[in-house]
């Protein structure tokens, strides 16, 4: 009976380990898919940022003689690559860009905010969780039986040199 229990415990352990390995494999692939989707989203965001208007673009449009209205409309439509630093404002002014266009650049949206696609991925923690409910291992063994025997006569034991007198109680345990 003990062998059956040991075999059951080992088999249960092996099945449990196989299920754990499968869950771990699923989590790994989910994480890989999530990472790939994040990388694609990041690449799209970078492309959007790079599609925005740069300070060099504004200088070029201004030097080409385009009107302030046209430059400002372009800034609002495409968005800007990044926010201006003080040094950028000074450089734009030194390059002949009007204060009106510089102000429009400062209030223009970031390119990433103009046409940001909604991410179409879900992080791994929002994936449905797989729950494995293991069945308990039940060990069954034969019952222990305790019987008391009363012997009203003297018990004779040949290996002893003395005799027991009177009755006695003995306990035997059987399996």
Short description:
Helix content is 53%, strand content 8%. It contains six helices and two strands; from the N terminus they run ααααααββ.
Q: Outline, from the CA principal axes?
A: rod-shaped
Binned strand content? 5-15%
Give the terminus-to-terminus CA distance: 12 Å
The number of E-state strands comes to: 2
Q: Work out the radius of gyration.
A: 43 Å
Task: Give a structural overview.
With 175 residues, this protein is mainly alpha-helical. Helix content is 53%, strand content 8%. The protein is built from six helices and two strands; from the N terminus they run H-H-H-H-H-H-E-E. It has helices spanning 2-51, 55-63, 68-78, 86-94, 99-107, 111-114, and strands spanning 145-151, 168-174. The protein has a two-stranded antiparallel sheet with strand order 1-2. The longest helix has 50 residues, at 2-51. It is rod-shaped, with a radius of gyration of 43 Å. The mean pLDDT is 77.
């Amino acid at each position: 009976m003990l062998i059956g229990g040991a075999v059951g415990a080992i088999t249960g352990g092996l099945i449990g380990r196989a299920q754990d390995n499968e869950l771990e494999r699923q989590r790994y692939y989910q994480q890989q898919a999530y990472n790939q989707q994040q990388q694609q989203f990041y690449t799209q965001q970078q492309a959007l940022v790079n599609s925005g208007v740069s300070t060099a673009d504004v200088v070029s449009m201004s030097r080409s003689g385009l009107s302030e209205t046209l430059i400002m409309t372009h800034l609002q439509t495409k968005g800007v690559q990044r926010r201006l630093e003080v040094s950028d404002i000074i450089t734009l002014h030194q390059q002949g860009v009007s204060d009106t266009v510089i102000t429009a650049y400062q209030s223009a949206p970031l390119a990433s905010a103009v046409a940001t696609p909604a991410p179409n991925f879900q992080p791994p923690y929002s994936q449905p969780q797989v729950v494995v409910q293991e069945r308990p291992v039940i060990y069954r063994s034969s019952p222990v039986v305790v019987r008391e025997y009363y012997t009203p006569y003297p018990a004779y034991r040949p290996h002893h040199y003395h005799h027991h007198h009177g009755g006695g109680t003995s306990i035997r345990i059987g399996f």
